[in-house]
Amino acid sequence: MVVGAAGGRVEGAGGVAVDVPAGALPEGTVVKVEPIATFDLSLPTPASFPFVGGLRLILGGARSSSGLKLSVPAPPGARSTDQVLVAKIVQLPRRQAWDLADIAKLVDGRYRISSLPGGIVEEGTYSFLRSDGTCVSYVNVQYNLEPNAFYLQGALPFVAVAAGEQQASLPAACASQVLVRLVNANTDDVVGAISVQAPGDPDAIFFSPAVVSVDQVSPVIVTSNVLSGGQLDQIQILFSKPVRTTLPSGSFVTVKDGAGFTVTGQVALEAGGTIAVFRPDTPFRLGETYTATLESVIDTSGHPLNAPPIAFTPYAPQALSDLKDVSALKQALDKCAGASCSTSAIDAAFIGDTLFLANGVRRADEQYDDPAIPTRLVAVDTSDPRHPVLIASNPTTTNPRALAVVPAAAFTIPGVGPFIGDLLLVAGGATAPELSGKLEIRDVSRCALRPPDTTCLDFTTLKGFKLLSTPSGVTPPPGVPADSGVPLQVAVLDSRNADGSNAALNAYVLTVPIGVEKVDLTKSFDAPGDSSPSRAPDGVVRGDFLDLAVVKSLVVATERVEQAGT
Asked: How far is CA 160 from CA 40, 54, 152, 157, 553, in A?
């Protein structure tokens, strides 16, 4: 929604909303709000502060000149005395942490921003965390610190990231003596502290006259994009404050490869001197270890940068066969026929850092390591590609042969209600022994949690399925093709509305020799209490198809057509 100078209210799915004060945003700013759930969080909520709602605020990069009033529907049983902290997850150099952004009160059945000093003025993902009974008040501390290099920590598990001459409010137990610690973000060493008395009344704020400050601080490296191990077209290094170089050439970054040869490239300081960028003349080689050294770098006061060389290795592509080097994954993927064994999977799909493997059998005589609990569907955590970890498996009888995913699906299920989560589509079947072709629809949202949820592929994840073929001699259910066949490919047409919800969500399955079968995923969840849900696909195009894909809003299939003389 476009918000003008007059301000206004913007609502999103699930009842989340933001009220924009008049004049807070530039004319023509596009504002969106989207609901979030606990599985969207990359960090567990602090103890004694459970998640009761949240939203993702999108401002198109704009910054508000005054606090925005975010709100979410309050859960049943909410009370006017509830204390709700509105926080966001911030990335520190060594860990993630919860940063207090504002507080909320119950107003007309909604938790609505009540406003701490400063309030919420920028886009981000905000969680509403309700105190489970602890009386919470606040201490407001002024600080004048080097941006990004420090954070403030009180007695409760929330931080305030220092970013220039500002102030921050930290939560505390009511009437407690709070030790506010100043922490070096790069080492987690406490470099200073002040003691402040928290007010005794809930939500009261004590404004400390003391100013937390550190003088004579040399610049440090906060982070660099090379630490992710991803494929790079340039190196970016973020400093704790603006820097410059004393070298006349300006080439203060030297990069060498594993053999010690210098990598030529262009060096520049950007973002007011807080980011150094090195752009190589030739791309970095995957799997090669490089070292970047910075020299003759000082801050505006002349304090030198003291930083060791940065070593990095862009990840080289890995084959699925590498998973056999992890004992738990080898055991899960092993399938043997006689004296011959294989750890190969038939298909793979990713949602974020989670790898899903279709580990069905290709031959009737193949056996799993534990035939009583066959690991036909497997989830793997690849957060560190060099050390994959088995998350979970499922012994589904579908004999998976093809996978597809729908990240962040959002639609309304007829007779059930709204669904928001990640979907895994599992197509499978077999000719010997002959099985019904089947498409499973699974909610695998929990597989994205870190640390991994080992139950994220259990029986509760199956939300519905469709039958795509029928074994010989078996009477097909209504609408299901009577032919035998095996699904080999799945493609998804996923179009979205402006709010991110699914406008259309269809799966197309290539089933040989039947053809291409369509399944409307929004109508394929089994409704509670429905003893005879439809198992038929929503459409069938018969033909001898060889390949299948979705290109924007088009479904493209390659068909073999027999002609005379060929």
From this structure: 22, 20, 5, 10, 45
